[in-house]
């Protein structure tokens, strides 16, 4: 993450108070919502360079890159911590986060319940407790240890705040906990007047009412060329013990809107790591099931989009997309059917709206990228292997209908 020199950023006046992004289903870096159509994440130089040199053919399969923004940590009068972005003067148009914002309400509730009391620094108190309890474990690992941990903790917190089952489950808690871990690290490593640089990226789920998202970790190798021997061994074990080795793809998180219960069914990366090849297939089936029926009409447009991506990846010589993810997205809000007495004549059936996007390029390498000591020839074989297997499994599901 890029950190700038100290400055006097002031308070939240004139800035954009960033919200936790409630549709983050995987990853460990905090993704935050900048406005209705833009998210931001901590800037990693290699990822920024990738977006700036992105081949034209890949642009429709990646989020639009919107530049960078300066961010600083800010604490309000009640002790609540936030990250505030300061856009360039020529680009100061942004939405204001209202006090009633769902994400802000949930985040403030989370802060209030993580401290030992109602003091002015609840997150700092929580951070001190975590260091005392888990001396050898990072705050991120302590928070994101298991699906059981975050689902039970967040369910009880949302029960205290809202009381109703539907509201408790109306969001994915993963993004909130990534944000909490990120703020905890910033509190530990940097003073509050430090400025940080974040990437601004297209919010690819903004067109969807109830975005159903599948986060797939692609490829048979997940470590970058610059990984330490310890990190390399750790990632190789994860691949060997999961479907990354046999299929070249594993589930890294998902949320699926359940129309019968009006909430998201959420799965995290720990769920995905334990799946066998058959379990992976069942996970794909679950992603396509809305609690009432399987959305079979989604299979063909997803397959067409994946086939188009496969063609593009095969044409990208020297690229290696180590540790990148692939998002498959559709709307849990089904289109209304035409009633017999409708004003407009029925139209020919249209392809269901889906999207497929590549994300997370902090370890991507390619010939000509800055300071690369290792270069490769030809397209990424591990990514292609995973994409071909994913397409094959979805075709099998389609044929079995």
Explain the overall architecture:
The chain is α+β, with helices and mostly antiparallel strands. It is built from 13 helices and 14 strands. The strands form three sheets. A seven-stranded antiparallel β-sheet has the order 1-6-5-7-4-3-2. A five-stranded antiparallel β-sheet has the order 10-9-8-12-13. Strand 5 and strand 6 (81-86) form a beta hairpin. Helix 2 crosses helix 5. It starts with 15 loop residues before the first strand and ends with a helix.
Concise description?
With 401 residues, this protein is an alpha+beta fold. Helix content is 35%, strand content 19%. The relative contact order is 0.15.
Helix-strand blueprint:
Layout: E1 16-17, E2 19-20, E3 32-35, E4 38-42, H1 45-52, E5 65-75, E6 81-86, H2 102-114, H3 122-133, H4 139-143, H5 147-161, H6 165-168, H7 174-189, E7 195-202, E8 211-218, H8 229-240, H9 243-247, E9 249-258, E10 263-267, H10 269-273, H11 277-287, H12 299-314, E11 320-321, E12 325-331, E13 354-359, E14 364-365, H13 381-399
Antiparallel strand pairs: 1-6, 2-3, 3-4, 4-7, 5-6, 5-7, 8-9, 8-12, 9-10, 11-14, 12-13
Helix pairs in contact: 2-3, 2-5, 12-13
């Amino acid at each position: 993450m890029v950190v700038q020199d100290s400055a006097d950023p002031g308070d939240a006046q004139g800035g954009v108070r960033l919200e936790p992004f409630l549709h983050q289903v995987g990853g460990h870096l905090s993704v935050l919502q900048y406005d209705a159509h833009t998210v931001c994440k901590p800037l990693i130089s290699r990822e920024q360079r990738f977006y700036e040199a992105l081949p034209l053919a890949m642009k429709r399969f990646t989020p639009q890159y919107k530049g960078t923004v300066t961010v600083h940590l800010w604490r309000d009068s009640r002790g609540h911590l936030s990250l505030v972005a300061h856009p360039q003067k020529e680009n100061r148009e942004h939405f204001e986060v209202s006090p009633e914002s769902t994400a802000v309400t949930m985040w403030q509730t989370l802060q209030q319940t993580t401290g030992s009391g109602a003091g002015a620094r609840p997150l700092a108190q929580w951070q001190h407790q975590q260091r005392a309890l888990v001396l050898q474990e990072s705050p991120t690992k302590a928070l994101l240890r298991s699906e059981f941990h975050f689902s039970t903790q967040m369910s009880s917190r949302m029960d205290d705040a809202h009381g109703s089952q539907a509201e408790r489950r109306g969001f994915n808690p993963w993004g909130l906990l990534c944000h909490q871990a990120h703020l905890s690290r910033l509190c530990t490593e940097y003073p509050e007047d430090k400025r940080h640089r974040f990437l601004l990226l297209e919010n690819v789920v903004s067109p969807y009412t109830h975005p159903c998202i599948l986060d797939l970790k692609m490829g048979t190798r997940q470590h970058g060329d610059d990984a330490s021997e310890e990190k390399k061994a750790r990632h190789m074990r994860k691949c060997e013990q999961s479907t990354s080795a046999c299929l070249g793809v594993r589930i890294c998180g998902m949320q699926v809107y359940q129309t019968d219960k009006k909430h998201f069914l959420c799965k995290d990366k720990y769920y995905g790591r334990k799946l066998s090849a058959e379990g992976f297939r069942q996970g794909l089936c679950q992603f396509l099931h809305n609690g009432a029926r399987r959305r079979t009409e989604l299979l063909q447009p997803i397959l067409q989009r994946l086939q188009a991506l496969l063609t593009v990846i095969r044409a990208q010589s020297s690229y290696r997309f180590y540790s990148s993810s692939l998002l498959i997205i559709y709307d849990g809000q089904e289109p209304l059917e035409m009633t017999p007495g409708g004003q407009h004549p029925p139209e020919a059936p249209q392809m269901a709206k889906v999207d497929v996007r590549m994300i997370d390029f902090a370890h991507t390498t390619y010939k000509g990228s800055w300071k690369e000591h290792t270069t490769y020839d030809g397209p990424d074989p591990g990514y292609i292997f995973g994409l071909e297997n994913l397409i094959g499994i979805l075709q099998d599901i389609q044929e079995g209908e």
